[in-house]
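Our collaborator T.R. sent over the components below with a one-line note: 'Predict the complex.' Nothing else. No constraints on interfaces, no templates requested, no preferences about which chain binds where. So this is a plain run: every listed entity goes in together, and whatever single assembly comes back becomes the starting point for the next discussion.
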Amino acid sequence: MPSEARTVALDFESFFRAEYRSLCQALVLLVGDAFEAEEIAQETMTRVLERWDRVGAMDSPAGYAYRTALNLQRKRIRRLAVRAKRRFAPVPVADIGPAAGDRHDVRRALQELPDGLRAALILVDWLDMDTEEAGRVLDLKPASVRVRLHRARSALRDALGETS
Amino acid sequence: MSETKELLRRGVGGFEPMPDAFDRVLARRDRKRRNQRVAAGVLGIAVFALAAVGFVRLLASEGTPGSDPRSPFEGTWVSTSDGGTQTMIVRVSADDAVEVTVTDEVDRVCGGTPSTMTGTGRIEDGTALVIPAPVFTCDAGSQAENPGTPPLDGTLRDWTLVLDPETDTLSDGADGVWLREGAEEPSPGPTASGQMWPQTSYQEVVEAQELADAGDPRSTWQVDPDLASDDNLYPWDSEIVERFAREGLGWEDWSIGRSGTFSGQLGGPYQELVLIRCAPGRTNPLYPDEAFADAFVGELAGCAPTIDDFRYETVRIDLEQPGLRGPSGVWVVTRWEMLQPVEPRSLYEHMYPHFELRQVEQVAPPSDAEVTSLLQAFLGARVDGEGAERYVHRHPDGFDDQEVPILYATTGGSPYERYEFDRLQGPVWPSGWIEFRIRLFAEDGTVVEQSLIVVRQEDGRLGLMYGSSFATTDLFPTTENGVPAPVVPFSLLDGEVTFAVAAPPWQEPWDGGVGDLSTFMLFGLDRSSMMIMADPLPVDASCEPGPAPADAEALARSIRSNPDVDSTAPVAVRVGGVDALRMDVAFVASETPTVQPGCRELGLGSAVVEGTRHLYVDGRMRLYLLDLPEGMSARILGIAIAAPEEGFERVMEAAVPTLDSFEFHAP
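Returned assembly:
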């Protein structure tokens, strides 16, 4: 009978265990909000599960999941429509520990980046995609990803006062 | 590790997903299924009614045995949906089983040789024929080949044919449509469409593949390993699409539909790719500059339409390898359709059209004079105290289309005496909406600010829509002296507890709330959340819910005894005229946070375990605990508002109107 190509379909639970944490972390960086990140990750994985007969047979189910997550993130922003961006005045965070303060600074700096720059940065520098792979996820030419990446890295370092 | 990655690692910090995330996904999937079943049940009634009508007609006209619901399926059926000709014979056997035999003269899965599929099925609901385990064989004994797709057995499992009694056709839910043998093909609609390109039949594709295999340039261009790659997310960037647009459609310039969405599978087949035709060398007459283009469609705003100044030729195409699949197989456009205008079903769709469903059309942006005139009339009416409603767009669907709150006076009742407004953004392609921030100055000195969108309505007139648009401002849709105003009433415990919420900024989550019916959750500005809980329970050291506390004070003591959190001493306050305890709680500061979400929470039960996912180590939660009046169906009410530390006070200010609005109605 047909298809010798994939006799062993990847089990969804195994896929979930392998990818969920990484997906959440990438979304935390993308949306700057752990709760929202996990909401999107949950919805993403639910959709992957619903289509697992097809997605599980793909060479890169994770690529499908990231693409779905990015689309959901865009749609979520669109749907909420009035989502207020963070514009709170910075206050000292020493009382919550330097690690938390650090995290705040980085997330704040990330959120200041335009969406496209932030997504390119996270896909390449956090998820270790190459620019071609990231380009496919973002619907961009690799060269455009590289340009965005360069700008994002510079902006992030500037915002955090880091030297390159 | 790269320097940037190290930075990002700091951004992720100690974040860990919920430990029960997998179970939550399963539960979410099940919840969706339940909802779908409810919807399907409604649809099923309608389908059954249609089937019954068809069945009665059969009884009347043909004398078909009336007690046998399988009869409508019996007979010989023919499908030409995939370019070949498939014949299906459906028989009803004596033991009540339905036997199905499908033959295909030229089956691509069998390398172009004939195939046979047999199976025994059952009728469900009188309208669906389900074949649980069809057996597929290539008649020549060859191995079926369908590389790049899931196993055929799995694909065919529970193969289902749905009867449409009106047209007397069967549909397999994908693209396969079966007509009774001898029946006429339904006439095509007015829509311009086509099947295969550049080949027109499966046999031609086989020949093109042979040419390509032989290195013949007449067909090698149709081979595209990138397109066949399972992770190709950019099928527009392919020669088959390029040539189809230029040679098949005669388009010189085009752009892709919104952010390039498609369905189907990665590596093919790719379905519902949308292209819109642009007038070459022409500036878009209605949107000469792209300064205000929506982020999602900005790349399209510079595309000048071709039909007239408004409408774009819009084509939706499917790409597939009908013969050999994989890096060596030729690609063809297997289906294309010029999309026709379709009225949007909601204002939201009007503002953000589904390009894959309808012809793309842009709307002439309103002129400055038109907009100014509308706003002056609307705001003038608000100052006058009457007649403002008629300017507000209210789509019948009501989707994202809310009433304007505090229309003629502040929540305190003070009327307005003057106004002003500023443009925030727009006009935005393709529907030309413009967003404004208006200010109304009340007699008592209160300043009301609101966000409004000017949009051209379905009838061509300008209308106003309340609220902010996507990704624009940091502003609440309505504020009074900078504080969000309460507008939406909610209730809990069957109306025993009522409160009002400014929504936005407080919004219900995607799936309509979490927890059980005694818990109400709202998301607020930035990363804040508000939980309203009936009878929250303390949790023990292993995070299991403990016994119900005697009263709010006992619950407060339990929270204060939790070593993982810092908490302030409870302060006596009043909420809705009822005595309450207010306390702030936060996780114990730690340089290396090890908080496990879902556990080590604030000493409250399952309701708050859900909610405090939002309370990070850098956040704080203000708790209001109160004993509900005697006779109500719960003893304790908890109100928990969590926010990041940096915005905590502002969030608390935004919550004040809601807290002030609580009322308790003992039965």
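Summary for T.R.: The CA atoms of residues 71 and 468 of chain B lie 56 Å apart.
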